Amino acid sequence: MLLIHNTSQVIQLTAEPQRGAELGTLNILPHGAVLIDGEHILAVGEPAELLLAHPEADLLDAGGKAVLPGLVDPHTHLVWAGDRLDEFEMRLQGKSYLEIMSAGGGIAATLQATRAASFEELLAQTRERAHIAFAHGSTTLEAKTGYGLDIETELRQLEVILKLDEEGPLELIPTYLGAHAIPPEFAGNAEGYTDFLCNEALPAVQAWWQEHAPARQLPFVDVFCEEAVFDLAQTRRILLRAQELGFPLKLHADEFANLGGAGLAAELGAISADHLVKTSAEDIHKLAESNTVAVSLPGTPFGLAQSEYTPAREIIAAGGLLALATDLNPGTSWNESMQFIQALACRYLKLTPAEALAASTINAAAALGIAERLGSLTPGKQANLIILKVPDYRMLSYRYGTNLVSTVIKKGVVYPLS
Ligand code: NIG
Ligand code: FE
User: What are the structural domains, with CATH classification, of the chain?
Assistant: First the structure.
């Protein structure tokens, strides 16, 4: 038993995801305490009362600082090899992301490096980023494949995700993103690659999963629905095939162009539709009427120095479920910190610090279908918490570029940061 006491504030949030105007409901208990039993939260309440009821509990002094649920990052491309520094400089000189991609750079460059990396190399490079994310307060993080595109390398990426999840303490939720780009073998033949995904790759991933991780839910299947990548008809075909094989769905939609991906995600009951920069008012309403979570990735327009961001206030006004994520990847947003994402969301999405925090915890958990298990300080949920270096949670959005987390607790185990 562990009692966290001497806090400035305990931010409980709500057990359920927060829709529309509910977003930002924090349920702050000033100077509260949190009682942890093994891997789970047993109670949140007044320190004196909890101590009286459980005098045997070990004590953890929060130093008069804020205590929050662990942050959840529901969209990352964690597993890759190498970097794209040259491309970064090309972009600074005026080349656009899609131009570089069409000229054979971009995702294709990371694909070559990732295919060439051994399992051990890929594991080591990915582990480094996982540790950085954890040290910045993320206790659960989604991780996509998508830099192999052939079956062998994609499975190697899935293996890296499973291995790092097993190592812990950061929990990883896997997504198969074989539909991230058209690989060189299928250059100019998106239709042929779509056939390959539906007929060969998806069944192969399903079979591999049943052999290697039979106790776990199948990974999510995601598609990059975008101009010069997968059009709406191809996206629909891949998602329907995935659904038929039992995979839950996610979708990259409306990052650079509006192809109608957000509406499709809602129609097919995807757990989330992500990016949503060019989303139409009609698709915002389709999302709001569904249980599909709208995941905004403000690190991406920021990383590309673009001025257009997710119409988050419209999504909230329509009654949608809004979450935030890093999009951590080597091309558009190499950033492991959900703290920085909250700072961006307040400035460019016009969220309040409370909304940004709810979108990074309980709603981010909903974007992974795990809000019943984590994302708030609710008795019975997994004991994932962070202790800040500061007494007020709003500092997470107000300040940026430094790490304001002092201690991370995952499944009841305390990891002090230096
Ligand atoms: O989410 N949109 C597609 N994928 C990434 C970029 C990946 C890359 O450039 O390597 C994104 O922005
Ligand atoms: Fe992405």
Answer: 2-70+373-416 (2.30.40.10), 71-366 (3.20.20.140)
| Pocket perturbation via mutation, ligand 1, pick of 175, 235, 327, 335 by most ligand atoms within 8 A of CB | 327
pLDDT tens-digit profile of 171-216?
Answer: 999 999 999 999 999 999 999 999 999 999 999 999 999 999 999 9
CA dist 366 and 381 (Å) reads: 14
Give the model confidence (pLDDT) of 66-83 as tens digits. 999 999 999 999 999 999
Compute the distance from residue 43 Cα to the ligand 1 centre, in Å. Answer: 40
Please give all residues whose beta carbon lies within 6 A of any atom in ligand 1, as ranges. Answer: 77, 106-107, 110, 224, 252, 255, 300, 327, 329-332
Residue 30 pairs in a beta bridge with 9
327 near 355, Cβ under 8 Å? no
**Residue 104: its pLDDT value, please?**
81
Residue that has been written with the tokens 């600082």 in this structure: 65
Q: Are strands 2-11 and 28-30 parallel, antiparallel or unpaired?
A: antiparallel
Q: What is the pLDDT of residue 409?
A: 98
Report the nearest-CA residue for atom 12 of ligand 1: 332
